[in-house]
Write a structure and sequence with these properties.
It is built from 13 helices and 14 strands. With about 375 residues, it is an alpha+beta fold. The longest helix has 17 residues.
Length: about 375
């Protein structure tokens, strides 16, 4: 137990002190070691940064392993995380109850199952978008449909299902003709994170190979027209209910004829973020007010259309005419110093500690009255 936590727990003995808020950090992944390592990376980075606030906090950890087994390490060291026991979900729920968890932060990168829905069923609030919105974001086919319905531009494209692709009647040439698609194109699985399986293709052979790769991750894939232009990320945060704050933008240093694939985001084992020198720069509102206004409008529409909460971020291509096309939305609660979320809020003059504190307090406001542990 950390000295800071011991201090808070000792204060509980004094009836005049409020009970600590117990935060459960849920991280790892049930599907693969790669995405499990990504969750560990984010959890460790945030723990190292600290971000203690004016509310006494006690941090607890739940690690989700491949095969959907759970363990509850005392800290984030390799030795502690390698220890058992690993338990099935029913026993994990019992353990969560025993920890008297007030709220949770979900660091799980997965599209296989929805841990936010689990915590909603347990009536344990968490930071960030709810289960339904997170499911909308996780499935790129669903988010694409919701964005189009809200009048948000996405690249022209189509969805291909594995059954269709595997049939004897499938013709890639006919598919391109029917949907009025021409190269270059971007092929991606509908349910993967961190640009896993996203491939820029220039020929029919490359497209077929890319679809084969996509179907190794799931039963559907998206084929999009490639949008030549700048790659820009923006977003909104909501420190107060029904108020979406504008943030600076990030532009990535890539060729207008290339994509920002997985190799530009995270190492192959998922243990480290890729930090290339000069790989992005900030665009403040005074640098390009027209782009800022347009990106904020799109970010607000996307946030609302998908039912997001607390924060959301959009990756976009901006063509030479200034048209904005949303590639994907991110609602992952990454409070570590290297995350885009903390970079953008920091560039807006919001300290990491301030933003973390605001999100904790918003989540605590969603705690059912019968479960409040903060004291009057």
């Amino acid at each position: 137990m950390a000295p800071q936590e011991s201090h808070f727990l000792n204060k509980i003995l004094d009836d005049s002190s409020p009970a600590p808020t117990v935060i459960l950090h849920v991280f790892g992944n049930p599907a693969s070691d790669f995405t499990k390592n990504m969750g560990i990376l984010h959890a460790r980075s945030q723990a190292k940064a600290g971000y203690e606030i004016d509310i006494p906090l006690v941090h607890r950890y739940a690690l989700v392993h491949p095969q959907a087994l759970w363990s509850f390490p005392q800290d984030l060291s390799e030795e502690e995380m390698s220890r058992g026991p690993k338990m099935e979900l029913a026993l994990a729920i019992q353990k969560i109850r025993e920890l008297h968890v007030t709220m949770a932060v979900i660091h799980v990168h997965t599209t296989d199952c929805n841990y936010k829905t689990l915590f909603e069923l347990l009536q344990i609030p968490f930071i960030g978008s709810g289960g339904e919105a997170s499911a909308n974001v996780a499935d790129k086919a669903t988010s694409r449909a919701l964005l189009l319905q809200a009048g948000v531009k996405v690249p022209h494209g189509t969805i291909v299902h594995k059954e269709m692709f595997s049939s004897e009647d499938f013709s890639p040439e006919n598919l391109l003709q029917i949907h009025n698609l021409s190269f270059p194109l971007v092929v991606k699985p509908t349910r993967m994170e961190a640009s896993v399986g996203v491939i820029l293709v220039h020929t029919v052979r490359e497209m077929v190979d890319a679809l084969t790769t996509s179907f190794s991750y799931g039963d559907s894939a998206i084929i999009d027209a490639f949008i030549a232009g700048r790659e820009v990320r923006g977003g909104v945060v909501s420190r107060k209910e029904e108020e979406l704050e504008k943030l600076p933008l990030i532009e990535y240093n890539i060729s207008h004829t290339d994509i920002r694939g997985m190799d530009k985001k995270v190492d192959k084992d998922g243990k480290n973020l890729v930090n290339l020198p000069n790989h992005f720069w900030y665009i403040q509102e005074e640098d390009d007010p027209t782009l800022h206004a347009a990106m904020h409008e799109v970010a607000c529409k996307a946030h609302t259309a998908l039912g997001c909460r607390d924060f959301s971020f959009i990756d976009c291509r901006v063509n030479d005419s200034g048209e904005i096309f949303v590639l994907e939305i991110n609602v992952f609660a990454a409070f570590n110093p290297g995350s885009v979320m903390t970079k953008l809020t920091g560039a807006a003059g919001i300290s990491h500690q301030e933003f973390w504190g605001a999100m904790v307090k918003k989540a605590l406001g969603r705690v059912p009255n019968s479960k409040m542990k903060m004291g009057a």
